[in-house]
Amino acid sequence: MDADAREHDDFTSADFVRFQSPRIDTRLGIHVGAFGLVNMLFNRGLLSPGDAALRRERLDWFNAAFANPEDRVPGIFTRYPRAVSWFNRASSAHLIEAMGPHCDILDRHGIAWEQVQSMRPQHVVYEDEHQILVAPAEAFTRA
Q: What is the pLDDT of residues 108-130, one digit of tens each?
């Protein structure tokens, strides 16, 4: 977790919010986000038909609600494959609230998740009205 990020119950002071696994995925080297965690359950065939339909409906809603950074900056995820997204709290209250169904699916499957906050995560590689994309520090070191 970013040194500036922490789990917190009062999100009124945070500029940015993220929903993620509390543990780093050793294969990916990141805290997988709630979308990724639900997608892993789906890809492994572990979601009930109802949860699979809810996942699809919520993904469609999110895709319509805000921009995919890849659409605005083609190749950004190729350049920064371990980058993670954070919601801008000031402009994305509706998006943060809409994460509830994803978190409910994770709870039903016993998958741990946390909501973390940061005043300003470091190494921002993309920003729009609703989100920032943050790459790990090692993405900027040269061999």
A: 999 999 999 999 888 999 999 99
